[in-house]
Amino acid sequence: MKPTLLILAAGMASRYGSMKQTEGFGPGGETIMDYSIYNAIRAGFGKVIFIIRKDFAEGFKNVFEPRLKGKIETGYVYQEMDSLVNTAFLPGDRTKPWGTGHALLCAKDEVHEPFAVINADDFYGKDAFEKAADFLVNKCSEKEYAIIGYRLANTLSEHGTVSRGVCQVDANQFLTGIQERTKIYSKDGAIGYEENDVFHHLKDDTDVSMNFWCFHPTVFGLTEKLFKDFPEKNYNNLKAEFFIPIIAEDFLWQGGKIRVISTSSKWFGVTYKEDAESVRESLYALIKESEYPEQLWI
Q1: Stretch 126-145: mean pLDDT, rounded?
Q2: What is the average per-residue pLDDT within 23-50?
Q3: Which residue of 120, 204, 269, 292 sits 20 to 30 Å from the alpha carbon of 26, by its own alpha carbon?
Q4: Residue 178 confidence (pLDDT)
Q5: From residue 161, how far is each of 96, 135, 169 by CA, in Å?
Q6: How far apart are the first and last CA of the chain?
Q7: pTM, to two decimals
Q8: How many CB atoms are located within 10 Å of the residue 234 CB?
Q9: Phi and psi dihedrals of 35, rounded to 5?
Q10: Is the pLDDT at 14 greater than 70, yes or no?
């Protein structure tokens, strides 16, 4: 059975300032998602499911359906603030859904095979998809999931600090925890994070999470149990979010294993609007190196 790709595309894109999910960066107006889907197809994925908001579903489908018709099966899941939530626990002042773990849960009735989860606005690279597909087909089970680990030096932005989940691993490259570090940047040739006005050095090849996960479908049962009481417990916290690492942490606590699969791929994305030009330059460089055709879908 071919694995499925789940793309988280319902984000508000508040820092970027526009709906970056459908902004064109490639020579033919390709989005970052197009390159992810192209990589997924050639790695052997059989289906792509987009998690989006209903209010931009029509425009979203008008962009992607003509491109992908006949190339890969597509599906759509809507993540709204009230999706799978008891309306009695919906704060009147809350303005957005409940985070990446909530988005994943919204797909529980659409995914029945091992699957990968990625962000819509991150470029993950060919090698990452090949390694994810290999894991999902050959090793994924109800007792073992995986995360694609990116070399920290390959995930920075030239236009500001970034936040990264630093992977902590054991001797067998299994995840023991993820330490969220904010204000990561390069200073005098060294990479590190700032905390309480102190710069702490990190190794360039430290594996970090870019939210590229590989799951067995049994993860939905676990997620449903964890999320059940989350809105009620966080009724007065309007910014509370149910993130995928919460699910991963509970899975590890229950005795499951999460393999950290290191990739040589260079990540890039549009965290800041100023990143857009460097994304275009990076894509054009890869096209020049024949990593991708000039027109993806011709």
Answers
A1: 98
A2: 94
A3: 204
A4: 92
A5: 24, 32, 24
A6: 27
A7: 0.89
A8: 17
A9: -70, -35
A10: no
Q: Which one-letter DSSP state was computed for residue 174? A: B
Q: Which residues contact 239 (CB under 8 A, 6 or more apart)?
A: none
Which residues neighbour 54 within 8 Å (Cβ) at sequence distance 6 or greater? 78, 80
Domain boundaries of the chain, sorted by first residue: 4-148+209-288
Over the chain, what HEC string results? CCCEEEEECCCCCCCCCCCHHHCCCCCCCCCHHHHHHHHHHHHCCCEEEEEECHHHHHHHHHHHHHHHCCCCEEEEEECCCCCCCCHHHCCCCCCCCCCHHHHHHHCCCCCCCCEEEEECCEECCHHHHHHHHHHHHHCCECCEEEEEEEEHHHCCCCCCCEEEEEEEECCCCEEEEEEEEEEEEEECCEEEEEECCEEEEECCCCEEEEEEEEECCCHHHHHHHHHCCHHHHCCCCCCCCCCHHHHHHHHHHCCCEEEEEEECCCCEECCCCCHHHHHHHHHHHHHHCCCCCCCCCC
pLDDT tens, 217-261? 999 999 998 888 776 676 566 566 788 998 999 999 999 999 999
Please tell me the total number of residues recorded for the chain in this structure: 298
Q: 98-133, pLDDT tens digit by residue?
A: 678 889 998 999 999 999 999 998 999 999 999 999
- 4-148+209-288 CATH pick, 3.40.718.10, 3.40.630.30, 3.90.550.10, 3.40.50.300: 3.90.550.10
Q: Which residue has the tokens 């005795």?
A: 255
Distance CA 212, CA 127 (A): 13
